[in-house]
Design a protein that fits this description.
The chain is α+β, with helices and mostly antiparallel strands and 159 residues long. It is 33% helix and 16% strand. It has five helices and five strands.
Length: 159
């Protein structure tokens, strides 16, 4: 027997019937078909499933869907405006920060949360913010560069 929850996902009000043991990750992927959010470790260690809940980066694999009633969730699908990529998505492409792409949605949403809270982070602050997001393809330099470039553009400096 499930419970009905109401939440806003990617700016769309949504009502879902969820089981008490379902994670937010399961609901996003299986019930809503938003497969940009990936499942990695299932234990909150890799950051692959990162989404924004009320603007804050969280691991969707660790949160029960029933606790999302009344909340706002943003997935990677919610960043682009139609066919226009979000500036972070553009920066990741421009700087070559996307390799296999598995970690990219979580990395971008973590970066968005950081930049929303701190529009002009230092390199150290960027590295600290993304420390919970694992990437097996890069040395993180291009990812940090993409985030720093967008922050510098927002400051009016080209990076």
């Amino acid at each position: 027997m499930g419970k009905e929850i109401r939440l806003v996902v990617n700016d769309e009000p949504t009502s879902l019937n969820v089981e008490s043991h379902w994670t937010l990750l399961k609901v996003i992927r299986d019930s809503m078909g938003l497969t940009g959010t990936k499942e990695g470790c299932g234990e909150g260690e890799c950051g692959t499933c990162t989404v924004l809940v009320d603007g804050k980066a969280v691991n969707a694999c660790l949160i029960l869907a029933v606790d999302m009633d009344g909340r706002t969730v943003t997935t990677i699908e919610g960043l682009a405006q139609g066919s226009e990529l979000h500036p972070l998505q553009k920066a990741f492409l421009e700087k070559g920060a996307v390799q296999c792409g598995f970690c990219t949605p979580g990395m971008i949403l973590t970066a968005k949360s950081l930049l929303d809270q701190n529009p002009h982070p230092s390199e150290e602050e960027i590295r600290f913010a993304i420390a919970g997001n694992l990437c097996r393809c890069t040395g993180y330099a291009k990812i940090v560069d993409a985030i720093r470039t967008l922050a510098e553009r927002r400051e009016g400096r080209e990076g």
